[in-house]
Amino acid sequence: MNTKDYLKKIAIHTCIYFTGATLLLIYIYFLFSASSGIHPLAQLLILPFSLLFALANVQFQHATIKIAWRVVIHYALTVGGMFCLLYLPNKAPGATASQGLFLFIGLTFIYAIVMGILLILRARIQRVRRDTKHYKGVYQNKDNEKQKKDLPNHKEITNKKPNKSKAQDADDYQNVFKKK
């Protein structure tokens, strides 16, 4: 993927996440504090969080590094961005450090559950795709068959059964297992 497409995906995802997070924030403020409006700093910091989240998702989806590193980078950008840009500037004046720590642990736990489910589904989808690919025989080449026929002492192998008499069929040990 070239840089232009990468940046375009990040910009589109940022706009989508910004819109969704803004609507969610408006809804939360409407439910809990109907008398006051949305805090301007909270509204302003949704944009950098949306950018970090979009960068994390596009990086996770299109990066060529190992999956473990992609998950670590995605975790740092998502949970770190949520904690630093959404919680810390908007926390209540009487909030303690232990409340912030519990929130961070809670976000990590939720992230682990969601990412675990996504990784299990991703592995299953990849396994199904791998198993449904059609097998293409390496040795069934037309060129190979042509070369074999050009050899002077080439004997053709056929899958035809040799002619057997009925007496030989009755004594054949494989006939015991055949369905009649």
Keyword list:
single chain, 180 residues, mainly alpha, 69% helix, 0% strand, elongated
Helix content: 55-70%
Derived structural class: mainly alpha
Main sheet summary: none
Global geometry = elongated
**Low-confidence parts, pLDDT < 50 over ≥5 residues?**
none
**Overall strand count:** 0
* Average pLDDT number: 80
Distance N to C terminus: 60 Å
Order of helices and strands: HHHHHHH
The number of helical elements comes to 7
Rounded to an integer in angstroms, the radius of gyration calculated over CA atoms is: 32 Å
Strand share of the residues? under 5%
Give the helix/strand layout.
Blueprint lengths: L2 H30 L7 H5 L1 H17 L4 H21 L9 H36 L9 H9 L15 H6 L9
Helix pairs in contact: 1-3, 3-4, 4-5
Structure description:
With 180 residues, the chain is an all-alpha fold. Helix content is 69%, strand content 0%. α1 (3-32) crosses α3 (46-62), α3 (46-62) runs antiparallel to α4 and α4 packs antiparallel against α5 (97-132). The protein is elongated and about 80 Å long. The two termini are 60 Å apart. The mean pLDDT is 80.
